[in-house]
Amino acid sequence: MDNLVRAEWRKATGNTILVGCTIWLYPVLGLGLVVLFAFLLIADPNFAELYEENVPSWTEYALFGWNAVFEELGILRLPLLGFIAYVFANEYQLKTWKSVLPGNRRVQVLGAKFIAVALFVVLALSIMSLVTTIGMGILNLIKGLPYPPALTPGNVGEFLVEFLLLGLLSFVSMIMLAGLAAFLAVITRSVAFSVAGTLIASLLETVAIRIPVGLLVNEFDFENVIYLYLVLPTYNISNIRSFIDTGEPYEYILMSDGPEFPLWLSVAILAGWTVFFTVSSMRIFSKQDFGE
C-alpha cells in the first residue's frame, strides 16, 4: 500500500501545471495576504491604527489554512476539488488503468489515490498556515508589536491539540470530497465531466441548497426543511470545527432559533457521507471492465 501511495504522489507531483494552479495556489494566497497587510499598513493610517488596536495572534494564523478552505460557502476549496477530480479521472482519460491494475487489488489502487490526495491537501494547507503565521509575525516584529499568546507550555499544548484535531477533520473531509470526485470519475470516465460535476455538486451543496431552504424557512415557515441543510457535509464540518474551537455548536444564519446537532451526530453524519462516497466508488470501480 505504501508503494501505491508513493506512486500516486509521484504522478500527482509530476503534473507541475496542475499542482501549481491548484495545490500550491494556497501557500501563494497565504503569502499574498501577508503582502496585502504590509501594503495597507504602509498606505492606510486608519488600517495601521486598527491593526495596532487588534494585534493578530499567531494561533489565529497558524490555523488560517484550515479555516479559509473549510469556510461555509466553500469557494476557496474549489481549486482543491478540481485537483482531486482530475487525479481520479485522468487514468480513464489516458487509458492507463490496464497498465496500473495488473498485480494490484483494485480497492488498494483506488484507496491509495484517496490517501495521496488527502495528504497532498493537508500538506498544502499546513504550508499555507505556516507562511501566514511567519509573515504576520514579521509584520508584528517590524511594527514593534507583540505576537500573542505567549509561548508557554500550556498555550502551545492547547494549540497543538486544536491544530491536530482540525488537521484530522481536514483529512477526513478531503477523503469525503475525494469520494465524491471518485464516484463521478468512475461513472463518467471523463476528466471534464468529473471536474465539472465535482465543482457543481460542491456549489449546489454549499450555496444553491441554502438559498431555497432559507426562503422556505424564513418566508413560508416550513421549518422542518432546515434539516435538508443540517444533514449536508458542509454544516457538519462547520459544526465539528465549532466544537473544536469553542466547545459550542455552530451558529448558522438560516434559522436563528433552529435546531443544533450535537458533536457525535455531526461526526456520524460526516462519517456516513465519507463511507457512502468511498464505498460506492470502489464498488463501481471493482466491477468495471478495462479490457476494451
Summarize, please.
Helix content is 76%, strand content 0%. It is mainly alpha-helical and 292 residues long.
Question: Can you tell me about this structure?
Answer:
The protein has 292 residues and is mostly helical. The chain is built from 15 helices and no strands. Helix 9 (106-143) crosses helix 10, helix 10 packs antiparallel against helix 14 and helix 14 (233-246) packs across helix 15.
The overall strand count is: 0
Shape: globular
Oligomeric status of the shown chains?
Answer: single chain
**What is the tally of helical segments?**
15
Q: How much β-strand is present in the residues?
A: under 5%
Structural topology:
Layout: H1 2-14, H2 16-21, H3 25-43, H4 45-53, H5 58-62, H6 64-69, H7 78-94, H8 97-100, H9 106-143, H10 153-188, H11 191-208, H12 210-218, H13 226-230, H14 233-246, H15 263-286
Helix pairs in contact: 1-9, 3-4, 3-9, 7-9, 7-10, 7-11, 9-10, 10-11, 10-14, 10-15, 14-15
List keywords for this structure.
292 residues, 15 helices, globular
